[in-house]
């Protein structure tokens, strides 16, 4: 039985940034257009007018200050309000594979490896560019990797579930070196025209390289993983990937983009995640106060603060529970991995940390790591 180690991590960050102020200007212009176009129905009381958003509202509700996106112009166009993403030909790399390649290159470089050393690629993300062929197989080809590859989707928990799958395969010997990559184009399935959620998501790609401990030159041993799911409709998207125009005329159905019952999610997910982490630590014989770092899913600062207090039994100290949400917004499965990649180098040998993600499903995945 081999011991799996995260030997390197990489993050691809899109160059285009939308600040809260920019987003609010675009949303409010859209709201004014909507209200003007529907003035008669609003006056008759059959349609509610759209309210303006504000930067203060966004930061108070989420802790988000900006987000990176693959296309800024389409999102900020009040008559469009979604990204302009060019349809790729079948002979060129897809947009997800292109993002993933940069994140994978970073993870490989951090571990001192190249693509040919990899024999497993898991593309673990909340939305896929196409049903088939698998995005992971395209990434495998671009990397020059061997072995096999497959896609998986557990929404915001995709990366941690992918880490568990890869770690189990390395333990069993069916893989030697694995990349778990999460290219998230959340801007494509966000409803930018809905005040309650128009600020939530951003785009990014992350990757972690997992290999056998005896071959790793450093990194974090994956001591234990734990995953759980429980069906809920409170976070849902009834459409496919990045499809705004449909031949059946359903393009404007609200449920065809990101939907969330925010209050229900807070009420139901927070105790589920806190209990999951505490049970995982207990099963592993680890007291919460032994954790040097909590790398939590980056969906909402209030949620993370609550979970940190529940797990540690106190307010987390500065640096114990790093947030990247203010700069990246919610990047679905990639959020906890960004937090890990950017806030793990300072841990000393033997120190413990825990990655945890949670989201639609409901799903929750946790990974206990020890610095080697």
Describe the protein in words.
With 372 residues, the protein is an alpha+beta fold. 32% of the residues lie in helices and 22% in strands. It contains 10 helices and 13 strands. It has a 9-stranded mixed beta sheet with strand order 5-4-6-7-1-8-13-12-11, sandwiched between helices. It has a two-stranded antiparallel sheet with strand order 2-3. A two-stranded antiparallel ribbon has the order 9-10. α4 crosses α5 (135-143) and α7 (262-283) runs parallel beside α8 (301-312). The chain is globular, with a radius of gyration of 21 Å. The relative contact order is 0.17. Mean pLDDT is 93; it is low at 246-250.
Q: Largest sheet, described in full?
A: 9 strands, mixed
Strand content: 15-25%
Query: What's the order of the H and E elements?
Result: EEHHHEHEHEHEEEEEHEHHHEE
**Intertermini distance:** 18 Å
| C-alpha-based Rg, rounded | 21 Å
Helix content: 25-40%
* Spans where pLDDT lies below 50 across 5 or more residues: 246-250
Q: Please tally the β strands and state the result.
A: 13
Layout of helices and strands:
Elements: E1 4-12, E2 16-19, H1 20-37, H2 39-44, H3 55-62, E3 66-69, H4 95-111, E4 120-124, H5 135-143, E5 148-152, H6 158-172, E6 177-185, E7 203-212, E8 220-229, E9 235-236, E10 259-260, H7 262-283, E11 291-296, H8 301-312, H9 325-328, H10 335-342, E12 352-359, E13 363-371
Parallel strand pairs: 4-5, 4-6, 11-12
Antiparallel strand pairs: 1-7, 1-8, 2-3, 6-7, 8-13, 9-10, 12-13
Helix pairs in contact: 4-5, 7-8
């Amino acid at each position: 039985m081999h011991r799996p180690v995260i030997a390197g991590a990489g993050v691809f960050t899109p160059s285009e940034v939308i600040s809260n102020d920019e987003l609010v200007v675009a949303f409010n212009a859209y709201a004014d257009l909507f209200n003007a176009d529907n003035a008669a129905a609003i006056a008759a009381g059959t349609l509610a007018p759209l309210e303006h958003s504000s930067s203060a509202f966004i930061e108070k509700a989420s802790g988000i200050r900006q987000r990176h996106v693959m296309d800024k112009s389409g999102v900020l166009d009040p008559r469009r309000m979604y990204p302009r993403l060019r349809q790729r030909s079948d002979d060129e790399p897809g947009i997800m594979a292109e993002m993933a390649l940069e994140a994978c290159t970073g993870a490989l470089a951090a571990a001192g490896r190249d693509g040919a050393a990899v024999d497993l690629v898991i593309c673990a993300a909340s939305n896929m560019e196409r049903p088939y062929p698998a995005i992971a197989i395209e990434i495998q080809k671009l990397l020059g990797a061997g072995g096999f590859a497959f896609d998986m989707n557990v929404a915001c928990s995709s990366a941690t579930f992918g880490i568990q799958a890869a770690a189990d395969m390395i333990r069993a010997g069916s893989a030697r070196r694995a990349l778990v990559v999460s290219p998230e184009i959340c801007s494509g399935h966000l409803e930018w025209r809905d005040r309650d959620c128009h600020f939530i998501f951003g785009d990014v790609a992350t990757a972690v390289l997992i290999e056998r401990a005896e071959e790793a030159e450093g990194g974090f041993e994956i001591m234990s993983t734990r995953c759980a799911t429980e069906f809920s409709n409170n976070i849902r998207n009834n459409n496919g990937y990045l499809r705004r125009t449909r031949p059946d005329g359903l393009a404007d159905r609200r449920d065809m983009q990101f939907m969330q019952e925010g209050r229900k999610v807070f009420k139901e997910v927070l105790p589920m995640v806190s209990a999951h982490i505490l049970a995982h630590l207990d099963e592993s014989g680890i007291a919460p106060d032994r954790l040097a770092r909590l790398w939590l899913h980056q969906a909402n600062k209030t949620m993370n603060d609550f979970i940190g207090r529940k797990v540690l039994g106190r307010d987390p100290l500065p640096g114990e529970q790093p947030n990247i949400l203010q700069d990246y917004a919610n990047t679905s499965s990639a959020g906890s991995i960004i937090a890990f990649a950017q806030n793990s180098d300072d841990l000393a040998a033997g120190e413990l940390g825990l990655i945890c993600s949670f989201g639609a499903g409901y799903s929750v995945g946790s990974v206990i790591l020890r610095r080697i």
